[in-house]
Amino acid sequence: MAEPKMAEPTGPLKGLKVFDLTRVLAGPTCVQMLADLGADVIKIEKPGSGDDTRAFAPPFVPGTKESAYFVGVNRNKRSVTLDIASKEGQEIALGLIAQCDILVENFKVGALAKYGLGYEQLHAKFPRLVYCSITGFGQTGPYAPRPGYDSLIQAMGGVMSLTGEPDGLPQKVGVPVADVFAGLYGCIGVLAALRHRDATGQGQQVDIGMLDTHVAWLANQGMNYLATGENPPRLGNQHPNIVPYQVFPTADGHVVLSVGNDPTFKRFCESFGLEHLLADERFATNAARVQNRQLVTDTLTPTMKSQTTAWWVERLEALKIGCGPINKLSEVFADPQVQARGAVVEMRHGAQGENTVKVIANPVRLSETPAEYRLPPPLLGQHTDEVLSGRLGLDAAALAALREKGVI
Q1: What is the DSSP string of 208-268?
Q2: Which of 124, 161, 189, 361 is least enclosed by beta carbons within 10 angstroms?
């Protein structure tokens, strides 16, 4: 394996400094994206325990005492342990923030104000600071004080009502998409605010509510409701607006068939002995097929079950008809396309780089300034002395005194 890269950022956000007051998933996702693109991130963690996700285990990453959950969203960050509830901790925080361009936090609404770290307080001191707040329900509205959790937001945001079999229970998505989307929208907001700051000198607050972002990504289903006033039904693995665009059983498993338009459906029918369907008005157009969804499914199922998944994938790919197997994660990470795109990166880990960890790569591929993997996910407090001495000039005696008091 290649030697680890130098810690000096070289990406498009090089020179930007981030004060990271986030934990768990939404906030760390936002900050890791900034860090991968070159921002210099100081992650503030509670002395003794740190980010909650350090304890979200098993599984642990092999060869380490770190949870896989924490490692997944905390690379390219330096960990500083700091008790912001103490006066000394608040003074240190202000000293570090004074040198930063961006602050990202996901505390409950108003919680940081009691430490002198709320948006209005910091905006008055540091008017150029971009301050991103990620909460369950945003900074305003009747639900603003409530805590936000991924499954709760998936339920309240409507996606659970759309997910699952028609006669089954509502289902959440199998990964915490509400958290991840909030983090990504937060990153977009930060980048826009930086553009404004660079043009005007004015910082601002980026207010991200997980429920807001969840409603935003309801996409076509949200628009289907707005257009009709009717709640879209759960359709299992079928598409609300396109048929056939769904899972079908095969002779040895299942396959996803994605027929996106009428010419593709015609090609499918002509290739597999179903030409007679093209003369039937119930099959002739996508609109008709949507209206006759069950008939289309029942008609195509015997044909799809007549051959194996691999047989269908080979034939359909040759015809340029969308299809694919339903992969387990072991198959995903072994897939030649996933491997060719470098979806997994190995990084040295530990105080001396004595271990390696595998992380999922950043999917944003920039031709001139690619994402960087400078620093592995940090050990708790690994960079406290380095940052406080380098940025604030604290000497060994001062650091020892702070550590004795539990401030760091």
Answers
A1: EEHHHHHHHTTHHHHHHHHHHSSPPPP-TTS-SS-SSEEEEE-SSSEEEEE--SHHHHHHH
A2: 124
Residues in the chain with pLDDT < 70? 1-7
CATH superfamily ID and name for 17-217+345-405: Crotonobetainyl-coa:carnitine coa-transferase; domain 1 (3.40.50.10540)
In one letter, which amino acid is 358?
K
Alpha carbon separation from 258 to 174, 246, 299, 368 (Å, rounded): 21, 6, 16, 34
**CB distance 391 to 96 below 8 Å:** yes
Q: Return the structure tokens found at 347.
A: 């990084």
Coil, strand or helix at 43: strand
pLDDT digits (tens, 9 = 90+) for 84-118: 999 999 999 999 999 999 999 999 999 999 999 99
The CATH architecture annotation of domain 245-327 reads 2-Layer Sandwich (3.30)
Q: Which of 179, 212, 280, 335 is catalytic?
A: 179
**Rounded Cα gap, residues 136 and 143, in angstroms:** 9
pTM: 0.92
Both tokens of 368, joined, read 């001139």
Active site residue 212: no
User: Using an 8 Å Cβ cutoff, are 209 and 135 in contact?
Assistant: yes
Answer yes or no: are the C-beta atoms of 130 and 103 closer than 8 Å: yes
The answer to whether 270 and 319 have CB atoms below 8 angstroms apart is no
Pairing relation of β-strands 102-105 and 77-81? unpaired
